[in-house]
């Protein structure tokens, strides 16, 4: 039994603020006395069910977000650079297939969460750093050889398939692991797992992502966005050393 | 001539996040090498003209804000406690009369901004700490004696008049100063000044309040909300010492 606080980190790779929060949270895993549980969720479902509207619909807010993200990315030291059409990437294309893929990676990984961390990071990098589309269907001719034998229909229709494969490869998954993940992706179990995680986030009060949640005497405490670390640190009795704790510590 | 950076702080006393940001900004006036210019503006106009919607319309967001404000207030050390009906106070009653009053205080005060700072603080305290209404019209019998002679109609109809008077008194304004401010309140000059400040905020990109703005080579840099101090400090080359810089400094 451990008395460590468990911080659930709900995120979606379509959300750039989730990326910033994710990298900072990953850096603090070994600085704060907490356990971090990565909780891939579906932002589209959270927005729709909570009745929230994308911030990008207000022109001044959208302009601000673009600038705010650039400034924060530089300060937090995350190589984020918005895609050609950030509004389309964030709010119109969606991330259902991508988040099912991440959920399947997590489901397959029994020991720790190194793979789900790496795959998530690679997907963010592709959308938010390399301007790649995670929703284009792959053509059959592009499907790599090691996947022959899998349902052709799934492979051809699957949105973003090639990007997922590249991300998984770069994250260090083997061909056979990737095959397993792809087979898992389409199962009802994985679809349900993503739905359930998203519903759990909504039940404790989500209206967007990223969201942090830990329990105090059974009650959920939530923090929304990438800008509540200092406050959260205060609430859990830990120290905020800025978004780059290792640099900051070495300076002191 | 001074090379100090001037930070324009746009705010409305109806906004609780503005209060938190205001107190932190006031504390840093003497810590950072900056000049702070208080810019009373009208939140209702900014929301309407930018096409933004109150966050309180999304139930999960409203619940979160209430909790977030309590936690932040405690951390920032501002005696904020939400009124009985925060939604009504924030989004339905409005603050036009209050912000004209604050604008008039600022207009009358020639030397510095001690009075406008104090009056703003007292108004926040009344709504956000003492659950008082800033929009109730005063009845004629409640109007203090020193104001006799002023337009009876204005006094009777003016929303929140008694609360403004109390705030101004507590902020240290004399009876004659208060009388001058009340006379200014209804002039076209003050109405226009509030409109112009609000429009200036919109022109540089506002979609809500509080908002910070300074210029770099003539271009406006804006920061929205009470949670960008650490980033703003980084951008202007100053040090973030937490929301209570004097406590934090003395500890180091």
TrEMBL record, chains A, B:
Entry keyword annotation includes Coiled coil: no
Keywords, ordered alphabetically: Transferase
Lineage top rank: taxon: Eukaryota
Key word Transferase present: yes
Residues covered by the DSBA-like thioredoxin domain: 6-144, 165-234
Stated family: Belongs to the GST superfamily. Kappa family.
Protein name: Glutathione S-transferase kappa
Species of origin: Solea senegalensis (Senegalese sole)
